[in-house]
Amino acid sequence: SIAILLYLARKFKTPDHWYPSDLQKRARVDEYLSWQHVSIRGKAGKLFLTKMLLPILTGQPVPPEKLESVTEDLNVVLKQFEEKFLQDKPFIAGSEVSLADLVALVELMQPLGVGHNPFEDRPKLAAWRKRVEEALGQQLFQEAHEGILNASNI
């Protein structure tokens, strides 16, 4: 949860870029963390559940119009994310990776795990993803997302 992430950042005095002491940068992180619950988390999670869980629970394929609607909802928030939060910056809070970037990317890995690539045809989003992965380390990032990226193999 966001509350736990903020607690851990404070308790263990993580490097400043994760949860910046600069008030403007921290406000950007806080703004994103408050927005993402009903936007990217909600829409990416709904796409994951619709493509993965709904067919298992109902024993029926998802109607194409339902999948199209859920996908369009995600596309709307991805556009908002790019325009409002990324703008022309390398990361959400500016020039360094933060908890906001980490949380955002984790949410966007869910659709990827069920065969929907939210980074496709979005060069700004794809470049941001690459920067976040590089900041975290490729091996750690892949290891952390192994389960979700193989979700459709269950």
TrEMBL record:
Catalytically driven reaction(s): RX + glutathione = an S-substituted glutathione + a halide anion + H(+)
Listed EC numbers: 2.5.1.18
Membership in a protein family: Belongs to the GST superfamily. Theta family.
Annotated protein name in UniProt: glutathione transferase
Protein origin, superkingdom: Eukaryota
Enzyme class: transferase
PROSITE patterns found in the cross-reference section: GST_CTER
GO BP of this protein: glutathione metabolic process
Pfam family, one: GST_C
Main location (coarse class): cytoplasm
The organism of origin for this protein: Brachypteracias leptosomus
